[in-house]
Design a protein that fits this description.
The protein contains ten helices and 14 strands. It has 300 residues and is α/β, with parallel strands linked by helices. The protein is globular and about 60 Å long. Bound molecules: zinc ion (ZN) (2 copies). One zinc ion binds next to loops.
Amino acid sequence: MMTKLKVTMLGTGSPWPDVERSGPAQILWIDDQPILIDCGEKVSYQLSKANIDLASIDYVFLTHLHADHILGYGQFLLGRWFSSRKKLTLIGPKGTKQFHQQILKMYEEDIAYKLSLGRPSEGLLDTNIIEIESSGEIEIDLPKQVKLRTAEMIHSILTYAYRFDTGEQSVVFSGDTAPVDELVKLSLNADTMVVDCCLAPNKIYSENISEERKRIWKELQKEHCDPEQAAKMASQAEAKQLILTHFLPGTLTDITHLLATKHFAGEVIVPADLDEILVPGRKSRESLSNGQLGKKYSRA
Ligand SMILES: [Zn+2]
Ligand SMILES: [Zn+2]
């Protein structure tokens, strides 16, 4: 039977604390197997709200090690250990191993106490950590036949986008990035692209902003995408569906959607936290011609 993919947007927010949007985190469903992509603030809480048992997650992918994408990892790791003895696999860029070990070190005393009560160390201390060495195909022993490819993005620290491909369906998660041709190449003919849209029109950043905010907004242009840039990449990749995410508080969602649809004829989704989005099937994409790369993006 065909493997079906689905995405649950656990957190569509940014580094800014926001009651409406939790830190960046998504679930990719490979049939009924949830794979966690990034571990933003409140991820365990969002998983509970989405009725996803922490113990059912055996794979976590980190796009990069910025705080907003990993703040929830410690709570997830320790919380999962309460109910699961299964080995966790953590995949991420160079530095992921050290990050995981720092979390264990930080809670060393508490972990030692729990071990002294007789709790087995399995599910915590046996975590399998895979650091990605370069862009390209990577072999991960996922439970289903899923091909995995990565590409390095443009961001202030090492960031990898991930493409999951079942042969029937494919989904790409950009992580944080400025517009980059590598994302277009990675996403050629993808069914779904989940793309950073931190620079969406925003009421906080458009009304009488201070010099400091102006400076920050300008700097952010080098590290993130706006809806038009995200949509142009989706269009060049001939993707079927574009999910925008990583929104700052005050994001104007209607205008964001409108701007993206100017450049991308496929479906544009500006999700809220906990939205579940079905990945379109290959059939509906057959009418599209083969992907041709358009103009090259360069760093702003
Ligand atoms: Zn980042
Ligand atoms: Zn971020």
